[in-house]
Amino acid sequence: MFGISPLGWVHTLSSLPAIPAALYMLATRGSITPQTRPGAVYFICMLIGALTVFLVAHQQISYVIGIATLVFLLAGYGVGRLTVLGGARRYIETICLSLTVFLLMVPAVSETLRRVPDGHPFVTSLDAPLLIGVQALLFVALVVGLSVQLVVIWRQNRAG
Questions:
Q1: How far apart are CA 67 and CA 27, in angstroms?
Q2: Tens digits of residue pLDDT in 94-148
Q3: Phi and psi at residue 31, in whole multiples of 5°?
């Protein structure tokens, strides 16, 4: 179904819970929060997804996205332990983890549009206008969302 291999299904189904976990944290907390239960779910699902992409990828960009996701995920979840960074820790964490959400959504949307509906997908190539438009919207959401998050952190630091 949808031209996905059994290993592809493992990759897809293991990383899929990261999407609602990210949306929940962004809606309720304004950012990905590593020290919460949804944060743990997000980390585990993203880690599995980023590692298994190397087993199922067919395009070079998939490897780049997988490596970038791993780097930003590990940095975002590890930076909180680096007390030497002081107040910059929260900014770095927010930037890194927001980038992981973006790196999750770009291939998720691309693969969905290229596979659904089964046999007659919405788009048939990576340069389809619909796909480019959706990816542009995801980029705008990243820029706007990250800007808002950083302003909120700055205001909290100034007030606190």
A1: 27
A2: 999 999 999 999 999 999 999 999 999 999 999 999 999 999 999 999 999 999 9
A3: -165, 170
Write phi, then psi, for 127 (nearest 5 degrees).
-105, 20
Cis, peptide link before residue 117, omega less than 30° from 0: yes
Please enumerate in sequence order all residues whose Cβ is within 8 A of that of 33, keeping only pairs 6 or more positions apart, or say none.
25, 39
Report pLDDT digits (tens) over 31-89. 999 999 999 999 999 999 999 999 999 899 999 999 999 999 999 999 999 999 999 99
How far is Cα 45 from Cα 34, in angstroms, rounded to an integer?
13
Q: Cα dihedral sign for 30, 35, 36, 41?
A: positive
Tell me what pLDDT residue 40 has: 98
DSSP string, 12-57: HHHHTTHHHHHHHHHHHTSS--TTSHHHHHHHHHHHHHHHHHHHH-
Structural tokens at position 104: 């999750």
